Amino acid sequence: MKNISFRNDILPLKDVLYRLALRITLKREEAEDIVQDTLIKVWNRRDNWNEIDSIEAYCLTICRNLALDRIKKRENLNESLEDNGNDSPDKSFNPFEDTLQQDRIDLVRNLVNALPEKQRSCMQLRDFEGKSYKDIAEILEISEDQVKINIFRARQTVKERFKNYDNYGL
Question: Rounded CA gap, 153 and 132, in Å?
């Protein structure tokens, strides 16, 4: 019998939940609210924790669904992620290289933000959170093949658009 602890098993997931919610909603405040709502929902279902195979996948699924509900209400997917401070360039660059590096980071962030939600979520969970294809499939409630296809398409799109921008400044 599993013994799941809110403090030891669920609370440490708040950063992963936040990054997923932020990647979907593109708004810091909404992502924070979604994480709080997720933790409350998970806590309220504590009597069923021992029936859950993966508490992490369970939490991520709730978080994703709450985030999707929020953006459906808002219906505005064209805003970009604010700089969250995690992508700061190496300080050893000279000012020109520093600006160029920050511009590229911003460009990649905007390219990822412009992807369809399912591709964005798959890419976030795989490339930024290091989740397995199986875990992503469970979280997003799609097949592993669909996960692989979404990640492939997301990476191809970002790569092509980055290359076009880098070559032509478009």
Answer: 17
For the beta carbon of residue 89, count every other beta carbon within 10 angstroms.
15
Report the C-alpha gap between 151 and 121 in whole angstroms. Answer: 9
**Residues 6+ away with beta carbon under 8 Å from 39:** 10, 11, 14, 17
Distance from C-alpha of 170 to C-alpha of 160, rounded to nearest angstrom: 12
pLDDT tier, 169 (very low <50, low <70, confident <90, very high otherwise): low
In the prediction, which pLDDT does 11 show?
94
CB atoms near residue 41 (< 10 Å): 15
Tokens 């905007």 -> residue: 110
Q: Are 19 and 129 in contact, with CB atoms under 8 Å apart?
A: yes
In 3D space, the residue among 140, 168, 169 whose CA is nearest the CA of residue 154 turns out to be 140
Using DSSP's 3-state secondary structure scheme, residue 53 falls into coil
Give the largest Cα separation in the chain, rounded: 59
Counted residue by residue, the chain has a size of 170
Reported pTM: 0.61
Please give the Cα distance from 62 to 17 (Å, whole number): 9
Tokens representing 127 are 């490339």
